[in-house]
Design a protein that fits this description.
Length: 107
């Protein structure tokens, strides 16, 4: 199921952070809905805002840099990058760092 959701998101450009960073919140919300992620106005807007923030924080080479930081155990630098993403607070950081170390995807 996760692969199908990821494929839908990718098909709508939601995993291309350089592109996402240039969209409006409304455009991200529409793409999320097209990808099957309509969860009601408040939750959909929250998800769009977080995805837009993630796109802004991880555009360019930042995603690869974050993956490398996690892989080599540079927790301080990885945490600083994660702190730029709205909705990804300090309670989430250890989970991302742990998942990144065990994932074949890096993040």
């Amino acid at each position: 199921m996760l692969r199908a959701a990821r494929a839908c998101a990718r098909a709508r450009g939601l995993l291309d952070f350089d592109s996402v960073a240039n969209l409006s919140g409304e455009q991200v919300d529409l793409r999320l809905a097209a990808a099957g992620h309509r969860r009601g106005n408040d939750l959909s807007l929250l998800m769009a805002t977080r995805l837009l923030s993630k796109g802004t924080a991880l555009r360019g080479d930042e995603l690869a840099t974050l993956a490398l930081r996690v892989k080599v155990g540079d927790t301080a630098a990885a945490t600083a990058t994660l702190a730029k993403i709205q909705g990804v607070g300090p309670a989430v950081h250890p989970h991302v760092l742990r998942a990144g170390k065990t994932s074949s995807h890096g993040t």
